[in-house]
Amino acid sequence: MFDIGFSELLVIGVVALIVIGPERLPRVARTVGHLYGRMQRYVTSVKSDISREIQLDELRRAGETLKSSVESAASGVEQQATVVDDYLRKETGNVTRVMEAMGTTEGERPVTAPAMQQLVEEQAPQQSLPLDDPIAAPTTVVETAHGTSGDKSS
After folding, report:
1. For residues 51-78, b (16+ Cβ closer than 10 Å) or e, as one string?
2. Residue 145 in domain
3. What φ, ψ does residue 66 adopt, rounded to 5°?
4. How far from 134 is each of 138, 140, 147, CA to CA, in Å?
5. Is residue 85 a part of any domain in this protein?
6. pLDDT attached to residue 99
7. Which among 1, 46, 65, 109 counts the fewest CB atoms within 10 Å?
8. What pLDDT sits at residue 97?
9. For residue range 92-147, what is the model confidence (pLDDT) as tens digits?
10. In the chain, how many domains are there?
11. Count of C-beta atoms within a 10 Å radius of residue 20
């Protein structure tokens, strides 16, 4: 802390002996030692408090970063779910129209090639889903009409 050598300490000790006197010097030295110890403990506690506050601030920042990354990932998942939902609704509508067309002709006459061509032309080109990211490619099990299940990867 201070740059005090042995010779300076010796001079301070001699002056203290002359000024304070030999009978009170041990008591004064003991008091100075206790005060010095208290000062060291106080400085140490302040340093540890500052260190804890710095660590706490770092943890808060890390928590906020984690929270923002989780929120962005959740928003990305919601967007992908919306795209898939829209796609599935559109395909369900197409299947419903085909089934209705088949139902109107059932029993009367089979669906002809021109009628199927008209249904195909009414459909917009099939939209490809943006699920090519290997991280976002889940494996799903699709239930078929016969009750069996098959794996279908997106």
Report:
1. eeeeeeeeeeeeeeeeeeeeeeeeeeee
2. no
3. -60, -45
4. 9, 14, 29
5. yes
6. 82
7. 1
8. 85
9. 988 888 887 777 666 555 556 666 666 666 655 555 555 555 454 445 444 444 44
10. 2
11. 14
Q: How far apart are CA 107 and CA 117, in angstroms?
A: 21
As a whole number of angstroms, the distance between CA 136 and CA 130 comes to: 9
- Asked if residue 83 lies in contact with residue 123, where contact means CB atoms within 8 angstroms, the answer is no
CA 149/CA 75 separation, integer angstroms: 30
What are the angstrom distances between the C-alpha of 66 and each of 52, 77, 81, 98?
21, 16, 22, 48
pLDDT one-digit tens code per residue, 35-77:
999 999 999 999 999 999 999 999 999 999 999 999 999 999 9
Domain range for residue 85? 65-96
Residue 33 lies in a domain: yes
| Single-letter amino acid, residue 107 | G
Q: Which residue has the tokens 């998942």?
A: 77
Residue 58 maps to a domain: no
Intra-chain end-to-end CA distance of the chain, in Å: 68
Which of residues 50, 76, 96 is at a domain's end? 96
Per-residue pLDDT, 132? 53
